[in-house]
Please model this.
Amino acid sequence: MSQLVQAEITGCRETAPGIWVTEFLAPSLARGAMPGQFLHIRCGEGSDPLLRRPISIHSVDRQSGRVKIMFQVVGKGTAWLAGRRDGFIDIMGPLGRGFTVFTGEQAGLDCSNPRLVVVGGGIGAAPLYFLLQELARVGCVQQVMVLLGARTANQLLILDAAKVLGFNVRVATDDGSGGYRGLVTDLLAEELQQKTDFVFACGPLPMLKSLCDMLRDAGVPGEVSVEERMACGVGACLSCVCRVKDTGGIETYRHACVDGPVFAVGEVLL
Ligand SMILES: Cc1cc2nc3c(=O)[nH]c(=O)nc-3n(C[C@H](O)[C@H](O)[C@H](O)COP(=O)(O)OP(=O)(O)OC[C@H]3O[C@@H](n4cnc5c(N)ncnc54)[C@H](O)[C@@H]3O)c2cc1C
Ligand code: FES
Model:
C-alpha cells in the first residue's frame, strides 16, 4: 500500500557520469514494493519545484529495509536530489502497477521452463535491476537473457550487478565502445530467433516502439514500462494519460501513474 514517508538517506554516489544512486531507509515501503513501481519524491525544500518527481525503485533489501533509486540528472529536481548526502527525503509510494514477476502461471502462459528476455535502454535499465532481483529470488536466473543498451560503455547501467546475480547479459552501445555496435533491439531480434516466452522492457520511447512492433510480429507477449510526464502521481489529474487498447480492442485512455507505468505489449499504443 502506498504511503508518505520521511526516509533517512543512507548513501548517495555517482555510479556513471550524471547518473546517481541514492539509498534510504524505508522498511515498510521496502516490504510492499514490486519491481516497476515508482516513488513520487519531493525534490526541493520549499515550493520550487512544486511537483514531486517520479523515480522508479531501483532495488530493495526487504530485510534491512533499504531502498535504492537510480536517476539521471536532467533538471532542477534531479540536481537537487543528487546533492542530498544525508538527512531525510519526502517520499510517496510505492505507486503504480509494476512488472509481473514471472512464473508461467502468473503471466497466464503455459510454459514449464520459460525463456525470458529483459531489455533495458539507457536510464531505463534502472528499474530492471529490482525485477532481476525478484526473478533471482523466485529461481528464474538460468531462464533469463538480459540485454542492455547505452550510448557508450561508461553509460551502461546494472551490467556488473546483473552478472553478480548470475544472469547472462549481452550489451550494445551506439559507438561500439562496449559489446555489439548498434541498437539493443538488434540484439533482441537475434534473441527472438529462439523460442522466447516473455519480454520485459524499459527504455527510451523509440526503443519501446520498435520493441513492441517486433514482439507483435513475433507473437511474443511482454510488458513495457512507459515514462509519461506526471503531476499528482495518484490518478487525480490528467497529466499522465496514455493511449491504450482495452480488452475489446477499443482505443481509450489510461493513467500511466495508476494503470501503469507498466503495460502489456499490445495494450499500450506508443
Ligand atoms: C514512472 C516514471 C519513472 C521514472 N523513473 C526514473 C528513474 O528511475 N530514473 C530517472 O533518471 N528518471 C526516471 N523518470 C524520469 C524522471 O521523472 C524525470 O527525469 C524527472 O522528473 C525530471 O525532473 P527534473 O526536475 O530534474 O527535470 P525537469 O526540469 O522537470 O525537466 C528536465 C528535462 O527532462 C524532461 N523530462 C522531465 N520529466 C520527464 C519524463 N517523465 N519523461 C521524459 N522526460 C522528462 C523535460 O522535458 C526536460 O527536458 C521516471 C519517470 C516516470 C514517469
Ligand atoms: S499524474 Fe495525475 S493522473 Fe497521473
